[in-house]
Amino acid sequence: MHVILAGYNVDREVIEELKKNSPSREDVTPETLSASYARISRDPRPVNELRAVARAEVEKARRSNQKIIFKMGHHSVAEHAVFNFDIIGVSRLAVEEIEKFRLCSYTEKSQRYIALKDDLFIPEEIKNSGKQSVFVRTIKAQNSLYRKLYNKLSAYFLEKNKEATRSSKKHFMLEGWAKEDARYVVSLATKGQLGMTVNARNLEFLIRRFASQKMAELKEFNRKIYALAKEVAPSIILFTEANDFDSKTYPEIKEKAQFFLESSRKSKELVCLVDFTTEADAKLIASLLHTSSTLPYEECFKKAKNLSLEEKKEFLKSAFKYMEFYDTPLREFEYVNLTYDLIISASCYAQLKRHRMATLTAQKYDPELGVTVPPSIEDIGSKKEFMEMMEETNHVYSLLKENMDQGAEYVLTNAHRRRVLLKVNARELYHISRLREDATAQWDIRRTAGAVSRLAKEVMPLTCLLIGGKDSYSEIYEDIFGKPPKLSPPE
After folding, report:
1. What percentage of the chain's residues is helix, strand, coil (to nearest 5)?
2. Residue-range domains of the chain with CATH
3. Is the pTM of this model over 0.85?
4. Which helix (H) or strand (E) is 421 found in, with range?
């Protein structure tokens, strides 16, 4: 066996410094990796030799990429080329769209840990509306209230948790609580930043999808990211133009849907389980039997259904027996699904959207769904002032919408709500529960995740035997097995 580290991410500025101090060369591109790996299936030479050939003949490698990826249809070859992007000064609203792409990696500036300033993005739609002054005035008022709430909340949390203030780590945590609750009053126009890692195949998909976007901010972002990628790797990002599928499909569906939806009643229930796998516990057992035998699934399901409740429980305990708090449930848990209709704040959505293996689609923000008010805002006696700011924001949102197809939502806040449809399999539900029901999770998503888990336990109790936050893992495990797990979650 011979294992070679073929390449790794290097800071762009390091690459530029190396290029300055060496003879001119064309092979400083991820295209050579894509081209050499594409040849593995048909060329008997060792892959390190294929890489050497690609580096020596960059233009030939580029032509090879175009032929293999775009003419022969082997798009997975483009996944070997990986890019890192610093994305700075984009709005919170745009970040939501950028982070919709499932197979990319993101790390985002957190409004929970960093005190916010007047970092305001003013979109072209607002500038062209003739209502920029009222937009800016409203957001400055929101930011002013943010600073006022932050100061009051900081004092409140420190006073309420005097013992914790003796630890610098816990003092920082309490300051974070103040920031995360005060941020509910700031707008979706607030500037943020993130780091994004993406392979060329998914970058091309992002660029093509954004080419059909109407938001001016996303169009600008798209132009810039495409120009940067094309400069480095022109042969593996080609299908980038807007197309009818991306630009016309949803608008046409929306137009036709109006006929069916005109007189419909809007439910205001925050967490509603709308669909789930029936006989989920038996189907999970059947899928495990299928993996562990040579029987067809239909026969496995018959046998699983005939087990008593106690037999089912004892069987499924085997799937959990050696699990530690950091372990992912077995792949068979993916055959069991649940779908939820949720009404959540922008703050909660910002965290839920990070679970990209789930299926998550969202409606536009809707002031008619109300706002989420942090309990601490009530505790410090600031709910009236908070709600007055929300009412003023809603008024300005209505003014902006009068002559704008989109862009008015920039003025809405982290407290404003939208309706989302969340579909998860049981395996992903465990991941969400471990992370978002943990005591260290932010209260808004912890409340939502708790409700999601409770509803899941009602319809598939055995599948959800070990579900719960990371901090509760030892207790849940001991309750099932009569002894603690080998490892406990770190405090």
Report:
1. 55, 10, 35
2. 12-80 (no CATH), 84-245+373-411 (3.30.1360.170), 268-372+415-491 (3.30.1360.170)
3. yes
4. strand 417-425
